[in-house]
UniProtKB/TrEMBL annotation:
SUPFAM superfamilies listed in its UniProt record: Ribokinase-like, YjeF N-terminal domain-like
PANTHER family per UniProt: ATP-DEPENDENT (S)-NAD(P)H-HYDRATE DEHYDRATASE (PTHR12592:SF0), ATP-DEPENDENT (S)-NAD(P)H-HYDRATE DEHYDRATASE FAMILY MEMBER (PTHR12592)
Gene behind this protein: nnrD
Binding residues for K(+): N59, D127, S163
Keywords: ATP-binding, Isomerase, Lyase, Metal-binding, Multifunctional enzyme, NAD, NADP, Nucleotide-binding, Potassium
Names of the cofactor(s): Mg(2+); K(+)
GO biological process: metabolite repair; nicotinamide nucleotide metabolic process
Name assigned to this protein: Bifunctional NAD(P)H-hydrate repair enzyme
Positions bound to AMP: K412, G413, A414, N415, S416, G440
Subunit structure: Homotetramer.
YjeF N-terminal domain ranges (all copies): 9-218
Catalysed conversion reaction: (6S)-NADPHX + ADP = AMP + phosphate + NADPH + H(+); (6R)-NADHX = (6S)-NADHX; (6S)-NADHX + ADP = AMP + phosphate + NADH + H(+); (6R)-NADPHX = (6S)-NADPHX
Amino acid sequence: MKIFSKEQIYSGDKITTERQNISSTDLMERAGVKIFNWIHARMQGAQVPIHIFCGIGNNGGDGLVLTRHLITHGYNVHTYIINCSDKRSKDFLINYDRVKQVTKTWPTLLNCSDDFPEIGLEDIIVDAVFGIGLNRPIDEWLKNLFKHFRSSKAFTLSIDIPSGLYTDRPIVDEDAAVWADFTLSFASPKLVFFLPETAQYTQEWMVLDIGLDSDFLSTTQTIAELIGKFEILPNYIPRHKFSHKGNHGLALIVGGRYGMIGAVTLACKAALAAGSGLVSAYVPKCGYVPLQTSFPEGMVLTCDDEQMITSISFQTQPSVVGIGIGIGTHAKTVSAFRAFLEQNKSPLVVDADGINMLSKNKDLLKLLPTQTVLTPHPKELERLIGVWKNDFDKLEKVKALSKEHNVIVVIKGANSITVFDGKLYINTTGNPGLATAGSGDVLTGIITGLIAQGYNALVAAIFGVYLHGLSADIAAFKHGYESLIASHVIDHLGPAFLSLLKKTKETEESSQSKEK
Ligand SMILES: NC(=O)C1=CN([C@@H]2O[C@H](COP(=O)(O)OP(=O)(O)OC[C@H]3O[C@@H](n4cnc5c(N)ncnc54)[C@H](OP(=O)(O)O)[C@@H]3O)[C@@H](O)[C@H]2O)[C@@H](O)CC1
Ligand SMILES: Nc1ncnc2c1ncn2[C@@H]1O[C@H](COP(=O)(O)OP(=O)(O)O)[C@@H](O)[C@H]1O
Ligand SMILES: [K+]
């Protein structure tokens, strides 16, 4: 699903009204009706007090359309206008007048020094204060209003975006935005729903289709895309009946040191379970017996050193090399890594200490083949790009690194983001059960295994992150978040592939889906 920028949404609005020959008021009516339908389907006329807080722009206008339809359907509605500015949008004013036609009770005007209305625990708050048009910090009174929402503990539904959040900037203060239970967003979810500093402001979200021009929707290139099942499926490469292991590549995992052989084992197993035809490990000698014992499907190559990798040389030509897991950053290992990069001809996936070595020896970045996949966790990323001021700054820094060295960077975490060529691919699978030792090693193995069998590096990174999360989601049903361990993610890769290919509704990967 595309994630449009604020500018793109405004232009989509304009194009739609022109091409469909409708007014902006008509489009607002559509938006408000969609929200009404969503509420009505769930509330079925229940007389729970609904408090609708409207700003004076078009987000407030949406709130007023909703007010009118709720009133005409007999709901218990209390509408408030946040009267902090003299400017009112045209469609706000039109809908303000239209409310008059359905009730004798005018919305309550809240001047920005007034007391707040009482909100009961069982009531519902609709937040239509600001949408994507917020353009400056909000004042103290508004912050206190948002705090009042929060302390009421009433269910809070935000329209389009939790008020107070910008689409393209961080907020400085957690009281400066509404903490929504649910957000109904128009046209596309907003990027801030997926970033660590702002995701907390909405627990759940859904996109409402308001019939924007279909050409606009399909041809507009966005800088961010949400990756779900329907983005992944077209990239899936089916197996041929007569294929043999030689058709599905050789993945080589290079890493490990004394005490860190388990990480390599996890990555190797994951590469095989992701579909690589053959998998080899390249480890120090101490890894030979454990790997041969615990990973009978694999081959094991060793360097001369017992405890750590001091040279990397092998006779085979792997389809891809996954390097860095548990490898350490000893000077001898750095030299071996440098020598390897100078003559390497295979595509690369670099993780963990591989990334740490790149961070400490930035000249090595120049030796990476194009479209190398880097999979840093937040600390590794910080070593690589430096401290960031906020999520937006982080994304810019990663884009710059990716562009300069022509590499694909997977920013790991909840909603991992794969960055390449200025574009962000935001993952929708995965759960906090993945916050466990070794889950990153499994991810590296999966991506390496996908490249081995012929997926291009960008697809492998996006698909690998998706599959890793999906497998963890399936495994979490059995094991719960706490008991989920990295091996379970490998064990459930099979069910993850199957669920991806199954055509039933139950395979929908997330409740956060586009409206049907
Ligand atoms: N296709 C779609 O997606 C559709 C979108 N629609 C809806 O339109 C929404 C966007 O509407 P919008 O452009 O009127 O902006 P909105 O967010 O209502 O706020 C602007 C007002 O707030 C004010 N203001 C700003 N900052 C402030 C501050 N800190 N403190 C105080 N005031 C502040 C600002 O004042 P000004 O800068 O003019 O002085 C202005 O008056 C969008 O989110 C969606 O809900 C649908 O109706 C139809 C289809
Ligand atoms: N809360 C979370 N929700 C979803 N995925 C998560 C969460 N926490 C961690 N992950 C995923 O788990 C993996 C952890 O990787 P990493 O920190 O490198 O682990 P390790 O070094 O132990 O192998 C990443 O793929 C990350 O995206
Ligand atoms: K809002």
